[in-house]
Amino acid sequence: MSQSVARALQILGELGEGPRSLDELAARLEVHKSTVLRLLRTLEHDRFVRHDEQHRYSLGSRLFDLGAVALEHHAVRDLALPHLTSLGRTTGGQAVHLAALEGHDAVYLAKVESTSPVRMYSRVGLPAPVHATAVGKVLLADLPARRLDAVLAGLDLAPFTSRTITDAGAFRAELDLVRERGWAEDAMEHEEFVNCIGAPVHDPGGRVVAAVSVSVPTVLLERDGVHDLLPHLLQTTSAIEAAWSGKEPS
Question: Which parts of the sequence belong to the IclR-ED domain (predicted)?
Fold first, then answer.
């Protein structure tokens, strides 16, 4: 870890215990005030810290935003895990993933491994390309128009296979289709030998907060066979949503 990052984290840790002045922070970190001030200005620019009229520093609103997202991700993962395990069993031991959007990436929050000797390269915490995965398409399709435009403007539609969608217009059309039918697929777009379907998980307010997918190597099931697993996938996302809202699944 770089020295600057370590010191910035120390500052946040100190402010987590209460407001501090520049002098107090410099004394606690045992560095010159100019060094601490430079770090504070960087943190304040991104809303990680703020200061009052007495020039005492405290934690900023960005941390509360991130904390809320982290708690939400933990909540949906904990609720989803038993349902993901059940989905793996009902689909014949296929790989099941739970993912959420973080910045411009879909990040895996949970994974149920396939019982097949043919495995996907994926793990919890690993980002997945949003344009080449079913979970990524599901998560993007729900974004408000302005945020979606911002994400797509900075998105590199890099090819992973010959089937990856690399044209911006075609990808927007794909997201329109996902919105219309309520689920997405990755037809060997991320890995040559894997087909995948994904569906959204909504919070009680109707916002998509995560996506669940089932991934199957082509040696086990062709694309149409993976589509046949869709009812199991949709039953699972409905069950997770019902658990979140405290209702019985319909």
Answer: 62-246
Under 8 Å between Cβ of 230 and 213:
no
CATH number at residue 55: 1.10.10.10
| Nearest-angstrom CA–CA distance, 33 and 48 | 19
- The answer on 152 and 53 residing in a single domain is no
Domain-ending residue, one of 21, 40, 59: 59
pLDDT for 31: 84
- The CATH number assigned to the domain holding 154 equals 3.30.450.40
Q: Provide the 8-state DSSP code for 196.
A: E
**How many domains would you assign to the chain?**
2
Helix or strand or coil: residue 194?
Answer: strand
3-state secondary structure at position 31: coil
Task: Please give the Cα distance from 4 to 13 (Å, whole number).
Answer: 14
Q: Are residues 137 and 49 both part of a single domain?
A: no
- Phi and psi at 92, nearest 5°, equal 85, 30
pLDDT by residue (tens digit) across 170-211? 999 999 999 999 999 999 999 999 999 999 999 888 889 899
Mark 218-243 as b/e (b = at least 16 C-beta within 10 Å): bebbeeeebeebbebbbbbbbbbbeb
183, 158 contact by CB (below 8 A): no
Distance of CA 232 to the CA centre of its chain: 22
Which domain range does residue 128 map to? Answer: 66-245
Say how far apart CA 166 and CA 164 lie, in whole Å.
6
Considering only the C-alpha atoms of the chain, give the largest distance between any 2 of them, rounded to a whole number of Å.
67
